[in-house]
Predict the structure.
Amino acid sequence: MSKMPAGESGWNALRGVNVLDFTPLLPGPFATQMLADLGANVVKIEPLTGDFARTFPMELFRMANRNKRSLALNMKNPAAKAVLEKLVRWADVAVEAFRPGVAVRLGIDHASLRKINPRLIYCSVSGYGQDGPNRDVPGHDLNYLAAAGAMSFKGHWLDDRPYRCGLPVADLAGSSYAAISILSALLKRQRDGAGCFIDVSLADAAMGFVSSRRGFDVDDPGRVHLFPVNDLYQCADGKSIALGMVEEHFWRNFRNLLGKEQPALLDPRFDTEASRREHGDDVSRILHSLIRTKTAAEWEGLLAKHDIPVQTALTPREAAQSPQAKARGMFRVLDGETHLPFPVLVDGAPAGAAKHAAPDIGQHGVEVMQELGMSEAEIAALQKSGAVPPG
């Protein structure tokens, strides 16, 4: 794992794009961090106490706010209006992630900001969107997944009921749709010069992911989306391996390799994919019993030699330090912490930059205000008013 040299900027495809980020927690910040990783100049506007995510006992804030600058601003203070107007004129993109109506109360809603900058691309990220009967309903990732139908899917063949994923899928889906929409709007603005309003619902985003699994014409997804020989299995050492035997030739390789050791695998009931589904409980139990006879390393070494998709379930640290991750060369260390900027290679080089770690509250406030053309006297007056932190 290498430390990115000072000044290395990745692909820098969004150089010159200015982004005004009003978002807390995860869905908005992860979207704007993608833009920052790709070279956009992102200024994060935080309350004087900072983004609430800073209080979480995990790395969420630092992992979603890399490459941004922080300006702490009390938007309820009338004196803050002068700073906001300059920021809006400066910005190409503004992103907010409050419950509907909050942006209006703060004076940073789309209608208000577009009067200042008609070319502004404005993106709202919220749980259920800006309209509909659920627009004001509070929620978090799990609520949106439930609303999208995602919680009706079983994750393993022998599960009796679905379980939540440890990853915040709705939040990350919404972040991705927001970033893609913003990039599309920037391209469109090059053609017609017009800004626009983007309304991203986390529940809608989760439904977008659900559609790829079974569509929307079923009430009970059952196990059709699963394969009884494509699952996670616990090994003798307590670790787990993932077997991805979806295609017929992988299953055939597995049977040929282990049929003598476990004759039950050669049962004619397991000859075809349709028959394996019909007798899925039986074949799944045989596999679970078999895999418990060796360690994860033993299985990975054995199966990989016979072209069978196998992967030990790694921890995040193990994944980042794996030979494959090192070969791709995309991880970076910032302030002693491992980061993965926009994980794509372009022309063989990492697209994402790792310029600096997540900022302290208001760390760049004076710097940003100076870039906006504000004088020392104006900045001092703002500090005295309480609109920004004292110098």
